[in-house]
Write a structure and sequence with these properties.
Helix 17 links the parallel strand 1 and strand 2. The chain has 23 helices and 5 strands. The protein is 56% helix and 4% strand. The protein has 482 residues and is mainly alpha-helical. It has 2 domains: 333 residues, no CATH class; 135 residues, no CATH class. It has a 5-stranded mixed sheet with strand order 2-1-3-5-4, with helices on both faces.
Length: 482
């Protein structure tokens, strides 16, 4: 391997591994995903509803499309191998960049080195112990197959099947292949060369159905992507100046592609259409930064090619390999020496969990409530499984965020609220006579009729409907499983 490429890959590996090691538990999704995995390991079946963890929508239909990731995460924790799981996630990120190196084999080594670092830096803000990263190397391999010609492009079908069983974001594949087919037609100025890719787009669309959920998976993905509730989720927000550290790498890559066009390194029509479409998607929702840089990132090496003034030999680049290893080691050591964060909400959640239950809990940040996933004494207003909650629940949640929690909490008989310190929700609760149990940020409030040492009055006054107290058939099956 050329030392320039090795140096870039070493640096990127250090970034991913350091990020994976230092990835704290601020991400509430890790809690409900672990609980989902535990249920699957016990019951050997997938849940179909949100279940008793929530009191607002226990019977809401749920498509746990991240079930394989959740099962692996639960198994890693059950067998005491969370570090191995973290290292595997870092390996997935590195594999994505390795495929980017393969896609740019024809470019100059120094241009490829710069490109790999740009791709790695652009991916790191989106990286974490998250199910969507499992699709990264698959998307890179699909692009490698598409660029290898119409015959090898059919490898995209089994890759799409695999991706669909890992995350619902696989529904993007038919769109990418269809745009690629349009680009081929424009490039060749004929429809016939594009026909194999058009047929492939249909085949990949059918491949997204090869999951336990069938047609429900693409239907869910399309409905959720257009759901107004996504505006409440950070990763679904549009790119903005305050997110420059997140989108900076992608902006650099896009700028290099444009400069390459201006300076003579013109892209083909398939590349232009994909780069433009995915860049627009990334600016619309920052969760799409990853797909853009995975698809278009390797083309940065070609855009930089005209800058090459001479060919570099292994002797010239030998020092780069050593520098790359040193940088990677420093990144890993620096992240490993820092204590892993339990999240700012951990003390508040622990304090609520210590209260006698059963309790109904509402969180201003729904990810905080995901921490109660394994607590049978706590049921939450809304948690991180946001894609399954009906619009009516989000309407109530918006009222809470708008500083009007009292009528919502009264309607749902909420016992405990975990809210941000100085904010409209905290002020409204204080004005309504709610009792401050924990100061700081976040704060914990108890409803006026609920004492710290007394049992919740919900059961005593029969305020929980009988249909919500009874377990669903799946919950019963999961509880009885060995």
């Amino acid at each position: 391997m050329n030392p320039a490429i090795f140096a870039a890959l070493a640096i990127v590996a250090g970034m991913f591994l350091g990020n994976a090691i230092g990835y704290g538990l601020d991400d509430g999704d890790l809690f409900w995903q672990r609980q989902l995995g535990e249920v699957i390991l016990r019951a050997h079946a997938l849940p179909a509803t949100l279940g008793r963890a929530t009191f607002t929508a226990p019977d809401a239909h749920w498509i746990p499309h991240e079930w394989l990731f959740a099962t692996a995460w639960a198994a890693a924790n059950r067998f005491g191998a969370p570090f191995a799981f973290r290292a595997a996630c870092a390996g997935i990120g590195l594999l994505t960049v390795v495929v980017a190196a393969l896609r740019s084999r024809a470019a100059d080594s120094r241009a490829r080195m710069i490109m790999l670092v740009v791709v790695g830096v652009s991916l790191v803000p989106s990286f974490g112990l998250r199910a969507q990263i499992l699709g990264w190397p698959l998307l890179a391999l699909i692009m490698l197959a598409l660029e290898a010609g119409p015959r090898r492009a059919w490898l995209a079908v089994p890759l799409t099947v695999l991706w669909s069983n890992l995350h619902a974001s696989a529904v993007i594949v038919p769109c990418i292949v269809a745009v690629y087919a349009v680009g081929i037609a424009l490039e060749r100025r004929a429809l016939r060369p594009a026909l194999p890719y058009a047929v492939l787009a249909g085949a990949t669309a059918l491949a997204t159905l090869a999951t336990p959920f069938g047609i429900e998976l693409p239907r869910f993905a399309l409905n959720w992507s257009s759901n107004p509730a996504t505006s409440l989720i950070q990763e679904w927000l549009p790119a903005a100046p305050d997110k420059i550290l997140i989108v900076g790498g992608v902006l650099v890559a896009a700028l290099l592609l444009v400069l390459g066009e201006v300076r003579g390194a013109r892209m083909s029509w398939p590349r232009r259409l994909l780069a433009a479409g995915l860049f627009a998607a990334a600016m619309l929702h920052i969760r799409n930064l990853g797909p853009f840089i995975i698809v278009a990132g390797p083309w940065v090496a070609d855009a930089l090619a005209p800058r090459s003034v001479r060919r570099y030999t292994w002797r010239n680049d030998a020092g780069l390999a050593l520098c790359g290893l040193v940088c990677a080691a420093l990144l890993v050591v620096e992240c490993a020496r820092l204590p892993m964060s339990d999240g700012a909400s951990a003390p508040a959640v622990a304090q609520v969990a210590a209260l006698p239950g059963p309790l109904r809990v509402a969180c201003e940040d729904f990810s905080w409530c995901s921490r109660f996933a394994a607590d049978s004494n706590v049921r939450v207003f809304i948690d991180g499984r946001t894609d399954a909650y009906p619009p009516a629940v989000f309407s109530e949640y918006r009222r809470i965020l708008a500083g009007e929690p009292l009528p919502v909490f009264a309607r749902w008989h909420v016992d405990v609220a975990i809210v941000k310190g100085p904010g409209p929700v905290a002020r409204a609760l204080r004005a309504g006579g709610w009792r401050l149990l924990r100061s700081g940020d976040p704060q914990v409030y108890l409803r006026p009729a609920l004492g710290i040492r007394q049992q919740s009055e919900l059961v005593r006054f029969g305020r929980i409907p009988a249909r919500q107290i009874e377990r669903t058939a799946f919950d019963q099956h999961a509880a009885q499983a060995p």
